[in-house]
From TrEMBL:
HAMAP family (UniProt xref): NADHX_dehydratase (MF_01965), NADHX_epimerase (MF_01966)
Protein source organism: Dyella nitratireducens
InterPro entries in alphabetical order: CARKD, Nnr, Ribokinase-like, YjeF_N_dom, YjeF_N_dom_sf
Gene behind the chain: nnrE
Co-factor binding details: Binds 1 potassium ion per subunit.
Protein name in the entry: Bifunctional NAD(P)H-hydrate repair enzyme
Cofactor(s) named in the record: Mg(2+); K(+)
Ligand binding ((6S)-NADPHX): 64-68, 131-137, 160, 258, 319, 366, 433
Length: 494
């Protein structure tokens, strides 16, 4: 079986190093041979991506990533492409030193980088400065070079990972290359799909270097990329009672829109019945805009109780507020023991009064809410989104969706999926309210919390990408409702 079947699997840096060592120790493939394979794959990628490039400059560091770069330069030279190398130092060791010797023997041009120096003229720069082992900010000389490359306007191919990006976390602790394309080797590194990675990697290519499938045996992936999923067709004799009754709770003074968006997304993704518990002042607007929502004005827990008894699933938080009204409804909802999705102020209240869930629950925090739930800063969460998502899931006993670029879905048992869809246009009000409704609808229709979160995040992000075909700026949450309906039925949206 071909190793390419592992391309949806995501690994840590430590795991990829172990795979590399297996290839050398168990399969008898030398490190220098692997380096040659990587260089060949990278040069082929460069030629495909920029077929008219006639001059390239390769930026080499002293490690094995730099070794890849020297061999890429050698291949370019042999192919008649004009090439120059800019190196941070001549301190290459091991296989990287062999690669540097190979380049020097061909008589190519090499420059030692000096701060303030100009870069060679080129159609493409090849970033081979730092590999996946870097977990700190680049040193001063490398930082100056990275900043010069980024300011040049010349397209960049990053080798294995854009220099300065942490391959485990997707965080940039300092300067980092902004590549137009990245080719990564052996296995996909998990940090290249979340956080700041989206602004650094460009088009991402994975090359397994022709390694056999046996290499991956006994090495479980740390995380997995989401598949495009939807629910299957309904039975021909299905009725509304088969698809669950969702109670959406929220909409304090001035936030009727939040609970309406949540409720409407719940309907569009197939819930049989959707009730809304909200402020009485919102009823006219809700009934006029979407009569299919069964909206009720509630003043407190006593009026909420009969609605809870009829519901099979709860969506708590959109527009809820953190005042006495919202807190009373929140507490009553959580004490009911019903399966639920918790978002927005539902999460802020949970940060104040923490509890571990014993019934199916999905929490959908953005990084700021995640920080409050963990007692950390937003920056701490973003520094290692994988650790934050897993800690939240384990602490609260719930499936957690850590929203943001490359949303993460974490299970208390340690499983984690990464969403590859979505776009910056979705950074607008109401998107989280929709997601809450989508996931609630899927749970109401029989999905586990884990499956509902995975399917729901994918549907929501893909709907956002469909809606963004008309432009990312000005994208509204309600623009996603039509594509959500189509995609949840397994249909393409025009």
């Amino acid at each position: 079986m071909h190793a390419d079947r592992h391309l949806r699997d995501l690994y840590t840096v430590e795991q990829v190093r172990a795979l590399d060592r297996r290839a050398i120790d168990d399969l008898g493939i030398s490190g220098f041979e692997l380096m040659n394979r990587a260089a060949t794959a990278a040069f082929a990628c460069l030629c495909r991506q920029w077929p008219h490039a006639r001059r390239i400059a390769v930026l080499c560091g002293p490690g094995n990533n730099g070794g890849d770069g020297y061999l890429i330069a050698n291949l370019a030279y042999e192919a008649g492409v004009g090439v120059e190398v800019v190196e941070l130092s001549d301190a290459a060791r091991g296989d990287a030193a062999l690669a540097r010797d190979t380049w020097q023997r061909c008589g190519g041009i090499t420059h030692r980088w000096q701060q303030g120096a100009s870069l060679p003229q080129a159609d493409v720069y090849v970033d081979a400065l730092y590999g996946t082992g870097l977990n700190r900010a680049p040193e001063a000389a490398a930082t100056a070079l990275i900043e010069r490359i980024n300011a040049s306007g010349i397209p960049v191919l990053a080798v294995d990972i854009p220099s300065g990006l942490n391959a485990d976390t997707g965080h940039c602790p300092g300067a980092a290359i902004r590549a137009q394309a990245t080719i990564s080797f052996i296995a996909a590194k998990r940090g290249m799909y979340t956080g700041q990675a989206a602004t650094r990697t460009g088009v991402l290519h994975i090359d397994t270097l022709r390694l056999p499938d046996i290499l991956w045996q006994g090495m479980p992936a740390d995380a997995t990329l989401l598949d495009a999923m939807h629910l299957g067709p309904r039975a021909r004799d299905a009725h509304k009672g088969d698809s669950g009754h969702v109670l959406a709770i929220g909409g304090d003074h001035g936030t009727a829109g939040a609970i309406r968006l949540c409720g409407e997304a719940t309907l569009r993704c197939g819930a049989g019945l959707v009730s809304i518990a909200t402020r009485g002042e919102n009823l006219t607007a809700l009934n006029g805009a979407r009569p299919e929502l069964m909206a009720h004005g509630v003043h407190g827990p006593q009026e909420l109780q009969p609605m809870l008894e009829r519901a099979t699933m709860l969506a708590v938080g959109p527009g809820l507020g953190q005042g006495a009204w919202g807190h009373a409804l929140w507490l009553t909802a959580l004490d009911s023991g019903k399966p639920l999705v918790l978002d927005a102020d539902g999460l802020n209240l949970l940060a104040r009064e923490q509890r571990r869930f014993t019934t199916p629950a999905v929490l959908t925090p953005h990084p700021g809410e995640a920080g409050r739930l963990l007692g950390k800063s937003t920056a701490d969460v973003q520094t290692d989104r994988f650790a934050a998502a897993r800690e939240l899931a384990q602490r609260y006993g719930a499936v957690v969706v850590l929203k943001g670029s490359g949303s993460l879905i974490a299970n208390p048992d340690g499983r984690l999926d990464v969403c590859i869809w979505g776009n910056p246009g979705m950074g607008s009000g109401g998107m989280g309210d929709l997601l809450t409704g989508v996931i609630a609808a899927l749970m109401a229709q029989g999905c586990s919390a884990w499956d509902a979160a995975r399917i729901g995040v994918g549907l929501h992000a893909r709907a956002g990408d469909v809606a963004a075909r008309k432009g990312e700026r000005g994208l509204l949450a309600s623009d996603l409702l039509d594509p959500l309906r189509a995609l949840s039925n397994g249909l393409e949206h025009d």
